[in-house]
Amino acid sequence: MNKKVLITAIIASFMGNTFCFTPCSYARTTRKQQKEASYMKLAQAEIENQQYNLAVEYYTKVISINPDNSEAYAKRGNAKNLMGLYKDAIEDYTKALEIDPNRENAYYNRAIAKTNLSAYDEVLEDYTKELELNPQNINAYLNRGTTEVLLEKYEEAIDDFTKAISLDKNNENAYYNRGLTKRNNQDYKGAVEDYTKVIELNPKNIDAYLNRGVAKYYLKDYNGAIKDYTKVIELNKNFKKAYYNRGLAYLGLKKYEDAIEDFTQEILLNPNNDAAYYDRALAQSKLEMYNSAIEDYTKAIELNPKNAEYYSGRGALISKTNGDLKKAEEDLTTAIKLDENDSEKYLTRAIIYCKEKLYLAAVDDLNILLNLDYNNSQAKELRSFAIRSLSVEQKK
Hints:
About 75% of the residues lie in helices and about 0% in strands. With about 400 residues, it is mainly α. Among the domains are: about 110 residues, Tetratricopeptide repeat domain (Serine Threonine Protein Phosphatase 5, Tetratricopeptide repeat, Alpha Horseshoe), CATH 1.25.40; about 100 residues, Alpha Horseshoe (Serine Threonine Protein Phosphatase 5, Tetratricopeptide repeat). The longest helix has 19 residues. The N terminus is likely disordered.
């Protein structure tokens, strides 16, 4: 069964420092320092107004006055980061750290810029350095954990999310991200526990219900999954994939009519969901709605002509209903070209060859199958039948 689920992405946050002078300290500064401070204040105002290009100009003026102003480099890096100029931002953060290696948030923000350039190993290094300076930075733990997930370092990511939780026991993002990581690590029970905590903290978190439903599905708790998907639909009746995922759970319970209804609703919301057509075809086949099933397989193929399962499913059903066997053979041949290591596809085509009395071709497919799966008893029996039938044909 083709199981596709929606997974919510983890998004790194952005941090910056505020910069200000008190009136009395301003009075004691030199004229040059006053000008420097004035540009800093103007730049900060442009940041707050989201006029980042103007902020960059003011920070550049500060740097021309005082090339050792670490704060100006860091702040200019923030503005460039927000403008999407990630390489330039990294250069500014690096310069700020050369001047002041202990500047908090510079490593953090440089890590965010590097994340946007997919330099994940360097990202981990920067978050680690940030945490050495500020071990209470929850966001650094969250984002380092996120990066570790991208690198499939699931145990390390779980440790970081757990550390964030130890610093803030009500941190919704930490529980959610840890749940997502546990699910990726196939710890579905642990994922359910974390998503449940998220829902306790925020009963309207749609993604938590959806992903808890997915984890329950993998635990074969289909009824529990259906309840979670139903809650998603209650919160947002047009939520894409909720109907599709609930349909998969109904398939797991062999409630084919309910599954068809949900897959149909998914198709209404998302007409390009080829998997919904495929799985509706599976449900229709179970209810002997063969013509409708073949139509859905065909639609799935139109939307995604590179999916081997779609051709295999249609070909097998055509063969089962004694339809156009040549067409069924063509479908299985296409499926095997797309996925030549699936033994079941060779078995299905061998059955079709036997129906067409092409016994030698059937034997060839079954030999390939047995090389892939030597203990397949069905293949051995069918090969014996094909060899006997071939012998009879040759004696005629």
